[in-house]
Design brief:
Layout (H helix, E strand, L loop, with lengths): L12 E6 L17 H8 L6 H17 L3 E3 L17 E3 L2 E4 L8 H4 L2 H4 L7 E3 L11 E4 L2 E6 L2 H6 L7 H10 L4 E6 L18 E4 L3 E4 L7 H11 L4 E3 L2 H5 L6 E2 L4 E5 L3 H9 L3 E5 L2 H4 L9 E6 L1
Parallel strand pairs: 1-2, 4-5, 7-8, 10-11, 13-14
Antiparallel strand pairs: 1-15, 3-4, 6-7, 9-10, 12-13
């Protein structure tokens, strides 16, 4: 059996689900896209190819194996994009939360049944029907659970709004022993440089009391200021608009010393190394064309 244990984003990783790119359905139509970045790359005729995505994910798994991390993969459902495993379930403490996700993605949960069956039922929490949340919006930081969300007006207006106030409130009530802090995100269905699909697209804790942050991702400046005050200005790597667009905050920590990052993030990777991190560079730019990167395609189950 798998005993869930996740309290932050930086403790030593022991077990993780990594998505798969096999038979993901090829190039979608514009109508089938549900984020502006995917639409953009479909229009330009440079949507990622299956073989390139498989190669990128194999390189990611190779790094996990190097650090003796147990890797689980979903069962392949032909024609279904199963790259981004983060959002279909997420771990908090010793529980695995199964949220209500958008209709287009619900079959992805069936593909991880072999993993779910290894987790005790009492360790699973199923969110109520009126609540919505995706794992990319939930970031753990020891005493804090940071939740990216949209208030009713934006949630009903934007397809890219994935976590609602009811989802935030449910997490706050369920994990009452934690400080659950909602952070309202900036959304756009049409402009990828104005849209923050999930909280991990503009914010990422790293190492001990450090973070990566993009100010423009927050609808309210007070939320950005809260994070700056929490981590302290000198401990924050600030991202530009273009770096946010490239998914620079969506890196992944294997431990408080080791970070997986995209090989083209030269400025970020240099900054990380200056701060003492070991940076494992992986070619993942093709995956980024679909509005996700390393954190999006991984679902940690055990850190200790």
């Amino acid at each position: 059996m798998i005993k869930i244990n996740i309290t932050n984003e930086i403790a030593q990783l022991r077990a993780v689900i990594v998505g798969i790119a096999n038979a993901f359905g090829g190039i979608p139509t514009l109508e089938e896209c549900y984020d502006p970045k995917s639409k953009e790359h479909v229009r330009l005729g440079i949507f990622p190819l299956e073989k390139d995505c498989i190669s990128a994910m194999d390189a990611l798994v190779k790094v996990f194996k190097k650090y003796n991390v147990t890797v689980y993969r979903p069962q392949n459902i032909k024609g279904l994009n199963q790259i981004f495993s983060r959002d279909i379930a997420f771990a908090i403490g010793d529980k695995l939360v199964l949220p209500n996700i958008i209709k287009d993605r619900r079959k992805e949960v069936e593909a991880i049944d072999s993993v779910l069956n290894q987790i005790e039922e009492l360790d699973k929490i199923r969110m109520p029907e009126d609540t919505r949340a995706e794992g990319g919006d939930v970031i753990l930081c020891d005493d804090y659970i940071f939740v990216g969300y949209s208030e009713k007006e934006d949630f009903e207006r934007y397809t890219v709004a994935r976590t609602n106030r009811a989802g935030l409130d449910f997490l706050a009530t369920t994990f009452y022993d934690k400080k659950v802090k909602g952070l309202e995100l900036r959304k756009s269905d049409d402009d990828a440089k104005e849209n923050v699909l999930h909280l991990d697209c503009c914010f990422q804790p790293i190492g001990k009391d450090m973070a990566i942050l993009y100010k423009g991702g927050f609808k309210n400046e007070k939320d950005y200021n809260f994070l700056v005050n929490h981590f302290k200005k000198e401990n924050i790597i600030e991202l530009s608009r273009d770096e946010m667009y490239s998914m620079s905050s969506n890196i992944f920590s294997i431990s408080d010393k080791v970070i997986i990052s995209e090989e083209r993030f030269s400025r970020l990777n240099s900054e990380l190394r200056k701060r003492g991190f070991i940076v494992e560079e992986v070619p993942y730019a093709e995956i980024a064309k679909m509005s996700g990167l390393f954190r999006c395609s991984t679902m940690p189950l055990v850190r200790c």
